[in-house]
Amino acid sequence: MSVLIQSSRSDIQSTSVGDSDTLQQSKAEPVNIHNFAALDGFPTQLSGPGVWTGSVFTEPEQYIQQLDTVDLQDIDNALRHFQNTGLAHHDMRREHFPLSSNLSGKLQHISEIVHSDRFFVVLRGLNPDKYTEMENVIIYGGLASHVGDERADMIHLYDRAKGNQSPESRALFPPNEITIPMDFHTDVDAGDMLSLYTLGLPKQGGDQYLASFWTIYNELAEKEPEVLATLASDWRYEMKRQNGVEIINRPVMTCVDGKVQINFATAFLIGSAYIPRLPESPSISSAQQKAIDSLLRLSRQHCLKLDHAKGDMLFANNMSLVHARDNFIDDPAAGEVRHLLSVMLRDGQRAWPKDASVANMIDQKFAGLDSQFFGTMDQYEVFRGKFAMLRHD
User: Fold this and answer.
1) What angle do CA 319, 324, 328 make, to 5 degrees?
2) Do 145 and 90 contact (CB within 8 A), yes or no?
3) How confident is the model at residue 241 (pLDDT cuts 50, 70, 90)?
4) Residue 51: helix, strand or coil by DSSP?
5) Which long-range contacts (C-beta less than 8 Å, at least 24 apart) are formed by 333-336?
6) 254 DSSP β-pair partners
7) Among 88, 131, 184, 340, which lies 20 to 30 A Cα-Cα from 320?
8) How do residues 267-278 score in pLDDT, each as one tens digit?
9) How far is CA 248 from CA 8, 10, 15, 304, 367, in A?
10) What are the domain boundaries of the chain?
């Protein structure tokens, strides 16, 4: 297995070493500060509608955008229009899925909320059972194109291990492809906006949670500023790739133009069954372990459990929110099987500027629609077999 080494600093070039080489990595030292304002380039506190705790959402209607009968007819008309063009499904662009100015405006407003308001929206009202699988793919791609004009590869999320949670399954499949719970994380280096389209729900469990990192940031700034200093220092990410493991040294938390951002999943920082650490990897420091513990604890404390219905589309800011999922149980005989489509999106007009250590990785994910996967589950199985190193945190 080859190991690729990168740094968050632009003056250090990537190198490649073989398995027999020894990587000399120093353990990150904790940064101790008494006054959080001393952390250069970061605000002392964040404000605005993106600073929220789950308890403020007393009704799901506070974050749900409901499609009405006119909208649904508009979507059906756009579906027929695309089908009549004769274009391949992966050629989907906003102009190929024409919507009324009213509905297109609603979808573009979702992007505004995701970037500048509470950071997430649930779009509700579609009935995926009304359509074929390919029609659902087209509708999802068409609606998503009005939220973000750029997209990455589509992935299908379902239990590929058939309910098996054994250590062997956990090593073979990423956590988003088996039924185990997923703790709070972002989709590391995957894109700006996380989107999910729920085609099927499980018999039990699978609840989704969101938490605002901006709220967590404020509490840490007040009570544990040393944790923020640790998050803003370099960490060793070990990223599983097709050709081995890529090592990237960079911060978990960055701030560009006043936008505090997080790029976090414990699998890449401390390892997991699916992404075991390299034998020569140094242990994380006590300060780093405390930072992880505090971040996860406050995520659980401030999270919102989403109201979840079949046909929902979730759009969420992947740079400012962390998300989690409960374990779940499918019942194929009863037709109760969890199946979601997911595409990372970017709105060229509203996308946040990013630190180079993140921007360079994300830019690769949006490098041309023509080469990206966009299709049904059977088509995804073929694609996944060739390009398995997708979003697996």
Assistant:
1) 150
2) no
3) confident
4) coil
5) 334/203, 335/200, 336/200, 336/201, 336/202, 336/203
6) 261
7) 340
8) 999 999 999 999
9) 7, 12, 11, 31, 21
10) 2-8+38-386
Question: 3-class SS at 208?
Answer: strand
Place of tokens 């009304």: 130
**Which amino acid is present at 388?**
A
pTM: 0.90
Superfamily of domain 2-8+38-386: Clavaminate synthase-like (3.60.130.10)
pLDDT in tens, 58-117: 999 999 999 999 999 999 999 999 999 998 888 888 999 999 999 999 999 999 999 999
Interior CA angle at 230 toward 224 and 231, to 5°?
A: 95
Please check whether residue 342 is in contact with residue 196, taking contact to mean a CB–CB distance below 8 angstroms.
Answer: yes
d(CA 10, CA 8): 6
Gap between the Cα atoms of 169 and 13, Å rounded: 36
DSSP 165: -
Q: Could you tell me if 304 and 316 are in contact, meaning their C-beta atoms sit under 8 angstroms apart?
A: no
**How far is Cα 67 from Cα 53, in angstroms, rounded to an integer?**
26
